[in-house]
């Protein structure tokens, strides 16, 4: 497995268990933060772009799996606040993912 795929796998795992951190992920990959940033730049990307892409892919998988509450989705995406997750989903899709079922805590579809 090349380092970029290893990076992506580690990032996806981190999102599912912790709050994502460039410093922690660099440590997991046994490189400095700056080296990780340089390697990402060599691939034409950044930490922020990779984090957004990984979170967006996780949100899409959650949507395909069925209805999910915003609080749970926020945790699954590595956000500490459901409002942050809601804003990110709006940014990615231009609207909330109601076709596949993001719901409020009472089970009703989120409207924003």
CATH class: Mainly Alpha
Q: Output the CATH topology.
A: Arc Repressor Mutant, subunit A
N-C termini distance: 40 Å
Based on secondary structure, the structural category is: mainly alpha
| Largest sheet, strands/sense/barrel | 2 strands, parallel
Helix tally equals 6
**Whole-number tally of structural domains:** 1
Question: What is the CATH homology-level superfamily?
Answer: Homeodomain-like
Calculate Rg over CA atoms. 15 Å
Q: Give the spatial strand order of the biggest sheet.
A: 1-2
Task: Report the strand count.
Answer: 2
The stretches of 5 or more residues where confidence is low (pLDDT under 50) are 96-101, 103-109
Query: How would you name the oligomeric state of the polypeptide chains in this document?
Result: single chain
Helix content: 55-70%
CATH A-level architecture? Orthogonal Bundle
Mean pLDDT: 84
Q: What proportion of the residues form beta strands (DSSP E)?
A: under 5%
What overall geometry do the principal axes of the alpha carbons give? elongated
SSE run? HHHHEHHE
Provide a descriptive summary of the structure in words.
By secondary structure, the chain is mostly helical. The protein has one domain: Arc Repressor Mutant, subunit A (Orthogonal Bundle). 62% of the residues lie in helices and 4% in strands. It has 6 helices and 2 strands, in the order ααααβααβ. It has helices at residues 3-17, 22-28, 33-42, 47-65, 70-76, 82-93, and strands at residues 68-69, 102-103. Helix 1 (3-17) crosses helix 4 (47-65) and helix 5 packs across helix 6 (82-93). The chain starts with a helix and ends in a 9-residue tail after the last strand.
């Amino acid at each position: 497995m090349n380092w970029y795929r290893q990076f992506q796998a580690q990032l996806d795992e981190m999102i599912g268990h912790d709050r994502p951190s460039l410093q922690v992920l660099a440590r997991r990959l046994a490189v400095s933060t700056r080296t990780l940033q340089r390697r990402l730049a060599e691939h034409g990307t950044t930490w922020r772009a990779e984090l957004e892409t990984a979170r967006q892919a996780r949100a899409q998988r959650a949507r395909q799996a069925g209805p999910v509450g915003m609080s749970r989705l926020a945790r699954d995406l590595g956000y500490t606040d459901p409002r942050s997750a809601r804003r990110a989903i709006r940014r990615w899709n231009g609207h909330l993912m109601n076709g596949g079922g993001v719901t409020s805590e009472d089970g009703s579809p989120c409207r924003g």
